Amino acid sequence: MAQTIVGVNSPLAVKKFGAFLAVDVGRxxxxxxxxxxxxxxxxxxxxxxxxxQNDAGDTISYDLVMALKMQPVEGDNLLxxxxxxxxxxxxxxxxxxxxxxxxxxxxxxxxxxxxDMRRIARERQTEWWARLFxxxxxxxxxxxxxxxxDYTFSTDYAGFAGNALVAxxxxxxxxGGAATSKATLTAADKFDLKLIDRAQTRAQTMGGGTxxxxxxxxxxxxxxEHFVVVMHPYQEYDLRTNTATGQWIDxxxxxxxxxxxxxxxFKGNAGKYNDVILHKHKAVILSNDYGAGANxxxxxxxxxGRQAAVVAFGSAGTGLRFDWHEEMEDRGNxxxxxxxxxxxxxxxxxxxxxxxxxxxxxALDTAxxxxx
Length: 372
Hints:
This protein is α+β, with helices and mostly antiparallel strands and 372 residues long. It has a domain at 171-306 and 357-367. The chain has 7 helices and 20 strands. The chain has helices at 11-28, 30-34, 107-110, 114-142, 193-205, 233-240, 248-257; strands at residues 36-38, 46-49, 59-65, 88-94, 96-103, 159-160, 163-164, 173-175, 219-221, 224-231, 271-273, 276-280, 286-290, 296-304, 309-313, 322-329, 334-347, 349-352, 355-358, 361-367. Helix 1 crosses helix 4.
């Protein structure tokens, strides 16, 4: 029976497989499927900006409007001239192109139709793109690359599209145990419920007043306010094996109470404690230079509120987030399939009174060790 083959770089294949890739990456990426919302009113940890998806340009500016702090005028005292001006602080995100590709091999190596090669290329590049996005989100939210040995990006990676990695300021950085700094962290300063309580308390009490520090807003999940903590499996192990009173058993009880929730943030979580949804992921940033001797291994868990980071997408004219391209090489013997995306990622931070202030994430540094 005759078989219809869609030729190399057919517009039909470009549009079809480019769209499939976008859907697949959204399903595979940890942050895409669990943490992302669209527009200025997004109530999730990641805010997606769409202004450049159909328009020309490579930069989006977005504003933080600080809370009013004027003292009210009482009685019939004159208000004129005492009104407070709105204070705006602006940040921006730039987009650029990233590309990757696969060589499907020569005709004798493939021994399959082009349709199969497209499917296999899409599957492999879906995994690759999902991994890239997750690594970028972890690096930007953490403000550093770290020492993770399984990252695609090199250990000296400093950022993408001109969006620099920004270290957390002092108000948005906390340490486990008795540690108060990188140098004072010891191997005993592990992740526990007390650190979550401390971060929750700080998030609820800092900012939003007259101090010039942005407030961290909780994510709205099924009509209730929650924060999210993403920790490394080593940190989750320390949390789960802590036998002290009021530790792991509290998480188990709270998780049982939340059973049946359908929101993506709740799915696959490691528990719930003090209105904080707990997650674990192996791409959480690791480092090996903590402690007085710069030899303590650490992990940086992320305490996330609303709009902790932004991501912006552009388009190469196809209207899709991913572009699909095919071409023949080696005099028609090899089919090379490449994919690309135009986007940018950045932690939400604003310069206020000369100091860069994070607005949606607290970094939680603790000592870790491989328990295996």
